[in-house]
Predict the structure.
Amino acid sequence: MQERASIFEYARFDPDALCQLASSLREGQSCSCDPTQRPKTGSFNWVVFISFVDGVEWVLRSPRKGDGIVSDDTNLLLLASEAATLRYIKSHSTIPVPEVYSYQTSADNDVGVPYILMSKAGGAPLHHAWQYPEVLGTEEQREKILFQLGAITWQLSRLRFSQAGSLFEDTGEVKIKTCLSRGLLMGRRDDLEDVPRGPFDSEDDFYEAHVTAFLEHVRYLPLSHHCFLAPVPARRDYSNETSYLVAVDRWNNFVAVQSKIDSSLNRTDYVIAGDAILSLMATRSQLCGYFCDDEHHGFVLYHPDLS
């Protein structure tokens, strides 16, 4: 039995067709896709790299199928929205995002998979540098990075829209359509039928949809030990073991209701928690008028990892 090449670890595609496409987008510049490379991967996508003869590298990014986090159909929506959002940010800000050269939201193309073909961003992953101080260097360099992240977040906050949802390209225009917020999708919440998907005209509608998704999850989907979403504490972020363990306890107290996993009692507790959130939202709505002004009306672009 012939061994499957590493480059096809996540999906079969046509590297030759990929190189032909990339070459056509650079005025015939020759390129290659190393068949021995192992794709890089994240929670939702896998990527491979192509190299041009002048040293330029591009990235092919494609959704992982059957990962269980969201449905394959939702992965295709996420791909389309990400491509549209990158193009919008590129044309409406100075944030250094990759350039999208081409994308397809189905496998019915010469490459053989849905994809985004984009430029390769320079540098190294921030979490690697942050984890190993000898890579990042001085405290001054860390401060510079945090300043840059703040500048990016500020620019995103200036891109405002009349509705809350996700960006998609439609007949040459960028439009706000169904909301692909993680709270409406993760844990197979994207399969729930009675959850409002937007776009939403108000903050109340947006948050009520998330509570609805949470309550529908409790009623119809399997419960994991940690049903709420929150960043997991990392040992490297704490100066000693005691501080880290305290943070883990607080995290557990936030994301879990007591210590049960999946039972009728646990589901009852989560329903009570969801109803409590709804009551808190009424208070939030009353306070909103004190903190909002005309200049800051509208919904902003944001990155979930910077929120």
In short: The first strand starts at residue 31 and ends at 32. The chain is about 40% helix and 15% strand. Residues 289-294 have pLDDT under 50 and may be disordered.
